């Protein structure tokens, strides 16, 4: 077994190294928006919608992509219960950010004027060669992917016409099919397009825009919107046994039907992009001039997931589930700074007063409390900074309050131990033998008491929402740390003192620790 | 006994307070406090903040001039906002104005933001804004309540497993006692209930429980060491345990309350408008009662439960027969018996079946109060008890 002194030194070294690493790498705790200013929005499904679980996850992704486009440093977007919480600490233009998050994005259908690979796209292809899109060609009958690179103009990916309903003989009643091309047509000239509008930006329906596709691989130059998501009545992903591929079936509204017939007439054999939030979801080619019945099918080499996603986008437009904003908080940087200062001042003052008190009460052995509390404080700082960097843990005011409350818990572990020590000393034991014996009993109490706190903090973290959750996390963190520090630092520290030359000096005597004669 | 000596005893941990001999007084104090809390809650209700009721709050830091409630009201009236709650205050060095109102439309909310920014002479993005839908508050409350109930169940199970179910019952009772008092404080003072309040209440309960565990852990240890000797009643063991942990409880209370006090002072000085002050005050009162309840509520309840057990009744009868004194007066353990290092074993206690008491707890309590022994006496057992020979 390692000597207690080695253990104490080891703790100092580990904490010292961790602290140095954090300071040198300039890692600071990630401040919550209530401490640095920012915006928080909570969205929830509107009304009493049931079974929204999966849809909410999808909606979360969409909200996340909108937020990412805002360029906020450390956005925190999470699902808590049936709500989506968007925290944007440090965001300056709070009103604009809120509008973008809360906006019901419009689905638009725009003719594709031009497509080029995006700059910095992972696909490093010459502009003369159209690159394959994510719906890579397979060996569907009649499809000849090899031919596409030579095709300079817009075309329907040389497929056997996918003519709508599989049951229907294509010649009798041709349903118009929309087909996603195997490769977007390339422009032979190296056209430089303007920056894509990107998600979250304004994209006026009556003006042409430039937009990226979902993977950021291609830039689409698009004409003004010809129709909106309102034209689509419903959409479903469907497996077509004939072609052996997933497809998306559409049904138009009555207005939408007319609109789409106009589009089909105008852009037959051209691509029409499905644009959501300034991002091209898919750009099928119109196969027929006219939709003879109110149904259409989009084919391509979709996986099941892709087909379902596209159907969801077409059906619900922006979000797969209708969300409403149920909570919004905007904190200005001034107020944030004030709150942070208050928390720091209260924490420092509370800590200092506790340290003075234990010194008065336990005299020299109060040094044990000093060391453990200060080391705990340093470790908390390191952990909070490190977790802020790695898992994006944000320190909120509620969290700071949790930490301040935990000063009492950390001090209490020392108190339980030192009081126990006194008891043993009073019984006539030497400091040396008492140090180990009393730790055993004290640690049992500390574990029992900390377990209760951890249990509470854990349950709160799991079940509660909002600020209560942050509070629970920090309280739990500090409590777990208390156990570790008590075992690896507090105990060896006392043992070291009890074996040092100090043990016989008057210094280590605590009030009330002198042995008592058994009173009869 | 002179105060000085009491303090010296306390400091040297020689105190021998007869806590259990006065449990009726403590029960009365607790019952009264709970009653005040419950009655206040029933008549005054709680002042629920917008987080629970829904609504919108704006807060602007004045660029230069001092805010005036009347002026702000006029601005709001011009915007067609009915019944705005306008307050002005100081945060740090800054004058702030705060408006609370119920506005339905988003556009109207933004008009208020603009107007307030204009009034304060700041940019609209610098206006603090909080908008809570009525469902959100309900959700926060529901979730917190559910967490609370699960927490209480889990903790009871833990205590029942780690100790015994009677300790779980006593702890639960003292938790509800703390809860009633804390909620009572909110209702009496009219403090606004915010999510921070939920945190305060949970902290108080967690702390109170933590304190209970420390006390009961000591009891368990002493029961293991002393009960099997058959020389001490449960009340005596409890008294002994409480005296042993008394300084710990006081010290912990002090070191826990100091940071909260710091929060309280800082909250008043810096965060006038944000409600930290209310939070810290509730926390302060709650923690105080949390410490009180582990010694003065949870422990006596446990004693009442345990003294009904056949095992402890038998001990009591035996001692009574041997010494010919009212056992009730024997509630302090004398110092001659030091804890031994026997392994702690309370399993036997839990298995004991409850037997009907021969006398009601009220009768016993009455007798005990009449037979009150002198507190913190170092005299041997027999001497002081001979004074009260009632049977």
Your description of this structure?
The complex is a heterodimer of chains A (520) and B (391). With 520 residues, chain A is α+β, with helices and mostly antiparallel strands. Chain A has eleven helices and 17 strands. In chain A, the strands form four sheets. A five-stranded mixed β-barrel of chain A has the order 5-8-7-13-12. A five-stranded mixed sheet of chain A has the order 10-11-15-6-14. A four-stranded antiparallel sheet of chain A has the order 3-4-2-16. In chain A, β10 (232-240) and β11 (245-252) form a beta hairpin. Residues 121-176 and 181-201 of chain A have low confidence and may be disordered. With 391 residues, chain B is an alpha+beta fold. In chain B, the strands form two sheets. In chain B, strands 3-4-2-5 form a four-stranded antiparallel sheet. A two-stranded parallel ribbon of chain B has the order 1-6. In chain B, a hairpin with a 2-residue loop joins β3 (85-91) and β4. The longest helix of chain B has 37 residues, at 234-270. The radius of gyration of chain B is 27 Å and the shape is elongated.
């Amino acid at each position: 077994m390692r000597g207690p002194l080695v253990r104490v030194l080891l703790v100092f070294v580990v904490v010292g190294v961790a602290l140095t690493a954090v300071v040198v790498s300039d890692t600071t705790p990630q401040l919550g928006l209530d401490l640095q200013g920012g915006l928080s929005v909570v969205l929830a499904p509107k009304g009493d919608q049931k079974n929204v679980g999966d849809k909410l996850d999808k909606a979360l992704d969409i909200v996340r992509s909108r937020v990412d486009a805002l360029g906020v440093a450390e956005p925190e977007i999470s699902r808590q219960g049936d709500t989506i919480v968007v925290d944007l600490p440090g965001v300056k233009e709070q009103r604009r950010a809120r509008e973008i998050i809360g906006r019901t994005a419009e689905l638009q259908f725009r003719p594709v004027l031009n497509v080029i690979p995006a700059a910095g796209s992972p696909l490093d292809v010459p502009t003369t060669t159209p690159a394959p899109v994510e719906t890579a060609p397979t060996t569907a009958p009649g499809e000849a992917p090899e031919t596409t690179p030579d095709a300079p103009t817009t075309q329907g990916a040389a497929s056997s016409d996918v003519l709508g309903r599989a049951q229907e003989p294509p010649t009798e009643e041709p349903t118009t099919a929309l087909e996603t091309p195997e490769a977007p047509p390339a422009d032979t000239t190296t056209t430089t397009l303007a920056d894509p509008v990107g998600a979250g930006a304004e994209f006026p329906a009556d003006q042409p825009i430039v937009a990226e596709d979902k993977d950021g691989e291609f830039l689409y130059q698009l004409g003004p919107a010809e129709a909106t998501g309102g034209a689509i009545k419903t959409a479903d992903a469907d497996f077509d046994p004939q072609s052996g591929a997933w497809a998306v079936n559409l049904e138009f509204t009555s207005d939408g039907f007319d609109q789409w017939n106009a589009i089909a007439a105008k852009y037959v054999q051209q691509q029409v992009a499905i644009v959501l939030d300034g991002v091209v979801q898919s750009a099928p080619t119109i196969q027929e001039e006219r939709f003879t019945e109110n149904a259409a099918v989009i084919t391509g080499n979709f996986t099941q997931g892709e087909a379902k996603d596209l159907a969801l986008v077409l059906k619900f437009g922006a979000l797969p589930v209708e969300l409403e904003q149920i909570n919004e908080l905007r904190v200005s940087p001034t107020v944030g700074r004030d709150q942070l200062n208050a928390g720091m001042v209260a924490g420092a003052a509370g800590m200092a007063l506790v340290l003075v008190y234990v010194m008065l009460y336990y005299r020299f052995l109060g040094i044990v409390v000093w060391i453990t509390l200060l080391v705990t404080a340093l470790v908390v700082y390191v952990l909070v900074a490190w977790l802020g960097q790695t898992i994006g843990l944000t320190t909120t005011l509620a969290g700071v309050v949790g930490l301040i409350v935990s000063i009492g818990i950390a001090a209490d572990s020392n108190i339980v131990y030192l009081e126990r020590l006194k008891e043993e000393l009073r019984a006539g034991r030497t400091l040396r033998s008492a140090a180990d014996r009393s730790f055993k009993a004290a640690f049992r109490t500390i574990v029992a008491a900390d377990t209760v706190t951890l249990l509470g903090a854990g349950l709160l973290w799991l079940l509660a929402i909002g600020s209560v959750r942050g509070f629970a996390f920090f309280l739990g963190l500090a409590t777990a740390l208390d156990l570790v520090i008590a075992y690896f630092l507090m105990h060896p520290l006392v043992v070291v003192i009890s074996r040092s030359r100090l043990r016989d000096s008057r210094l280590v005597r605590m009030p009330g620790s002198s042995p008592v004669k058994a009173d009869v | 006994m002179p105060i000085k000596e009491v303090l010296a005893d306390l400091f040297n941990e020689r105190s021998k307070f007869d806590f259990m001999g006065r449990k009726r007084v403590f029960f009365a104090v607790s019952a009264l406090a709970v009653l005040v809390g419950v009655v206040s809650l029933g008549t005054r209700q709680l002042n629920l903040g917008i987080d629970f009721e829904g609504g919108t709050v704006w807060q602007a830091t004045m660029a230069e001039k001092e805010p005036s409630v009347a002026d702000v009201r006029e601005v709001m009236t011009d915007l067609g906002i009915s019944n705005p709650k306008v307050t002005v205050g100081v945060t740090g060095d800054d004058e702030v104005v705060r408006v609370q109102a119920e506005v339905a439309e988003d556009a109207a909310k933004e008009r208020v933001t603009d107007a307030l920014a204009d009034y304060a002479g700041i940019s609209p993005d610098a206006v603090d804004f909080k908008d809570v839908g009525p469902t959100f508050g309900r959700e926060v409350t529901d979730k917190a309540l559910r967490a609370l109930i699960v927490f209480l169940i889990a903790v009871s199970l833990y205590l029942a497993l780690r100790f015994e179910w009677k300790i779980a019952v006593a702890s639960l009772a003292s938790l509800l006692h703390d809860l009633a008092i804390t909620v009572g404080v909110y209702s009496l003072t009219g403090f606004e209930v915010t999510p921070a309040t939920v945190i305060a209440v949970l902290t108080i309960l967690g702390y109170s429980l933590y304190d209970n565990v420390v006390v009961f852990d000591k009891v368990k240890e002493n029961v293991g060491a002393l009960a099997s000797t058959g020389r001490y009643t449960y009340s005596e063991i409890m008294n002994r345990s409480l005296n042993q942990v008394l300084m710990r409880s006081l010290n912990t209370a002090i070191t826990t309350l100091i940071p909260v006090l710091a929060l309280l002072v800082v909250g008043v000085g810096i965060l006038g408008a944000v409600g930290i002050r209310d939070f810290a005050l509730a926390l302060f009162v709650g923690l105080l009662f949390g410490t009180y309840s582990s010694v003065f509520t949870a422990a006596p309840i446990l004693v009442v439960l345990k003294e009904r057990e056949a095992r402890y009744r038998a001990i009591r009868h035996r001692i009574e027969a041997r010494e010919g004194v009212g056992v009730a007066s024997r509630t302090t353990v004398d110092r001659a018996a030091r804890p031994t290092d026997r392994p702690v074993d309370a399993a036997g206690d839990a298995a004991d079946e409850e037997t009907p008491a021969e006398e009601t707890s009220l009768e016993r309590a009455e007798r005990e109060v009449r037979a009150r022994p002198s507190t913190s006496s170092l005299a041997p057992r027999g001497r002081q008890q001979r004074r009260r020979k009632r049977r």
